[in-house]
Automatic annotation (TrEMBL):
Pathway: Protein modification; protein ubiquitination. Gene3D superfamilies: 2.60.120.920. The keyword Coiled coil applies. InterPro entries: B30.2/SPRY, B30.2/SPRY_sf, Butyrophylin_SPRY, ConA-like_dom_sf, E3_ubiq-ligase_TRIM/RNF, PRY, SPRY_dom, TRIM47_SPRY_PRY. Keywords: Coiled coil, Cytoplasm, Metal-binding, Nucleus, Phosphoprotein, Transferase, Ubl conjugation pathway, Zinc, Zinc-finger. This is RING-type E3 ubiquitin transferase. It is found in: Cytoplasm; Nucleus.
Length: 241
């Protein structure tokens, strides 16, 4: 299929949804993600344009100025710069991070600065084999929710927000919404400072001044994901390859 044109919406419409919302609402913003082979690190094996797995032996990809050289990452084709977009990822195995990265971020950055969520040009949801967390600009915020193999990602340019959901049985359960908070009134009572939210307040809006791409980081040697959702039979076939 072709990539769907994402239309703008009321910036507060998604914010008004309850923590569990119908998946059908988000499907009208569906964005077809195809993995860009010219960005894939040499330790990532692609299965068409939808699946990717980290491998031990390097793959002899052709040289490309957009290819990651120090991080096991791959980007989606195309770039997003307005409107609302929604896509889903199926975590098949291992430690993975899913999110967005600025189109103009250098793929030659060293590992400590080039990883998804470890800089001001990207942010992500990470599954580390035990728990979820979100990363932005080098800071991590742990999440209490249990594992969900299907993750929904909603990018809203009008609201300058990125939201992650656990997708189960046609329902969306909120994992975390990343957005700079509105300025507090000076008369409001002081509250404990959340370093992660403070970082969002200072830098997150700047991410939306750039064209963004869906981004994927496969952290463990057995990491494997698919642009989803997938049926169980499809997952079984991929894991046997």
């Amino acid at each position: 299929g072709t990539k769907a044109d994402a239309e703008s919406q009321d910036p507060d419409s998604t914010n008004s949804l309850e923590s569990e919302a119908p998946r059908d609402y988000f499907l009208k913003f569906a964005y077809i993600v195809d993995l860009d082979s010219d960005t894939a690190d040499k330790y990532l094996q692609l299965f068409g344009t939808k699946g990717v797995k980290r491998v031990l032996c390097p793959i002899n990809y052709p040289e490309s100025p957009t290819r990651f050289t120090h991080c096991e990452q791959v980007l989606g084709e195309g770039a997003l710069d307005r409107g609302t977009y929604y896509w889903e990822v199926e975590i098949i195995e291992g430690w993975v991070s899913v999110g967005v990265m600025a189109e103009d971020f250098s793929p030659q950055e060293p590992y400590d600065r080039g990883r998804l969520g470890r800089n001001a040009h990207s942010c992500c949801l990470q599954w580390n084999g035990r728990s979820f967390s979100v990363w932005f600009h080098g800071l991590e915020a742990p999440l209490p929710q249990p594992f969900s193999p299907t993750v929904g990602i909603c990018l809203e340019y009008a609201d300058r927000a990125l939201t992650f959901y656990a997708v189960r049985d046609g329902k969306m359960s909120l994992l975390r919404r990343l957005k700079a908070s509105r300025a507090r009134r000076s008369s409001s009572l002081a509250s404990p400072i959340d370093p992660f939210q403070s970082r969002l307040d200072s830098h997150f809006a700047g991410l939306f001044a750039r064209r963004l791409k869906p981004a994927f980081f496969l952290e463990s040697v057995d990491a494997h994901l698919q642009i989803g959702p997938l049926k169980k039979s499809c997952i079984s076939v991929l894991k046997r390859r």
